[in-house]
Amino acid sequence: MRFHIITTLFMVALIAAAQSGQADVTITPDVVYGHKLGLAMTCDVFTPTENANGAAVLFMVSGGWYSNWAPPEQLQRFTQPLTDKGFTVFAVRHGSSPRFSIAEAVSDVRHSVRFIRSNAEKFSIDPNRIGVYGMSAGGHLSLMLGTASDDGDANAKDPVDRVSDRVNAVVAYVAPTDLRVMANDAPDRLPAYEKFPALNIDTKTAAVDSPLLHVTSDDAPTLLLAGDKDDLVPIAHSRNIQEAFEKAGVNSRLVEFKGAGHGFQGDDAKKSTEAMVSWFLMHLAAEK
User: Fold this and answer.
1) What is the pTM of this model?
2) What local confidence, expressed as pLDDT, does residue 93 receive?
3) Which listed residue, 25, 92, 97, 155, has the most CB atoms within 10 A of its CB?
């Protein structure tokens, strides 16, 4: 139930800032970006029919590390603020909790970036202008791509795995950054985390996929959006990684919303979405 509530709040945030006159978009549903256990991993592609700027943004379809399918016409509510500005948006689904772990979700979204970059010409995008955003668990996955990516494995059997999964800009809404404090053996673990099967991990396992521990000077420019009254992912997560970014010299910014919890409404919803779009315009839209 908590997952559905926060997903609804995120939808409200994006709809609130969307322009009333929606730009024309071509939707390509269920593009297969990889396979696992005989199953397809998919994303939906939203391509502006006019004034495309050549940049791509991946939207992490994830909350509580659950990743559900929905008709792409419904997801368009999430993508419209970006497609209206000329971005091609990929709504990426990953192997969902409880069947798949956080580590497997991270692996999946890494593969999605490699696939999209390797098919840049097909999607009419610049492989050097790829951003990513998401809320909560989706924000965590976005930060993992921004802090812990690589240039690909030149010896990989799959050609896609030879391609870099680095991204060029990140926006993370109310994102967990240190999974160690959420693990099942964490001394001050919040009771709410019992409801998330993905967090049935120990602190040693959690450390591997904690963005806070991967911050280095070559990380992607990152915008953090967080509420100072968030009782599910306390704002300390965002403050701590922002401090680490600053120490490492990473181009980053933290916007705190006074009185907001795990999701934004009203003016906060509008301002957070405008900040997200502006960040990607600043770091992706212009030709380098």
Assistant:
1) 0.93
2) 98
3) 92
Instruction: Evaluate the CA torsion angle 119, 125, 131, 132 in order and state its sign.
Output: negative
Tens digits of residue pLDDT in 71-102: 999 988 889 999 999 999 999 999 999 999 99
Secondary structure percentages of the chain, helix, strand, coil, to 5: 40, 20, 40
Q: Where are the domains of the chain?
A: 2-285
What local confidence, expressed as pLDDT, does residue 22 receive? 56
- The tens digit of pLDDT for each residue in 178-235 reads 999 999 999 999 999 999 999 999 999 999 999 999 999 999 999 999 999 999 999 9
The candidate with the shortest Cα–Cα distance to 64, out of 142, 149, 7, is 7
Strand partners, 91: 44, 59
**Is the pLDDT score of 64 beyond 50?**
yes
CB count within 10 Å of CB 114 equals 26
Other C-beta atoms lying within 10 Å of the C-beta of residue 256: 14
Is residue 54 helix, strand or coil? coil
Residues forming beta bridges with residue 132, ordered by sequence position: 58, 170
Other Cβ atoms closer than 10 A to 228: 14
Residue with tokens 């980053």: 252
Give the number of other CB atoms < 10 A from CB of residue 247.
10
Q: Can you tell me the distance from the alpha carbon of 142 to that of 172, in angstroms, rounded to the nearest whole number?
A: 6
Alpha-carbon distance 55 to 66, whole Å? 27
Instruction: Evaluate whether 108 touches 41 at the Cβ level (below 8 Å).
Output: yes
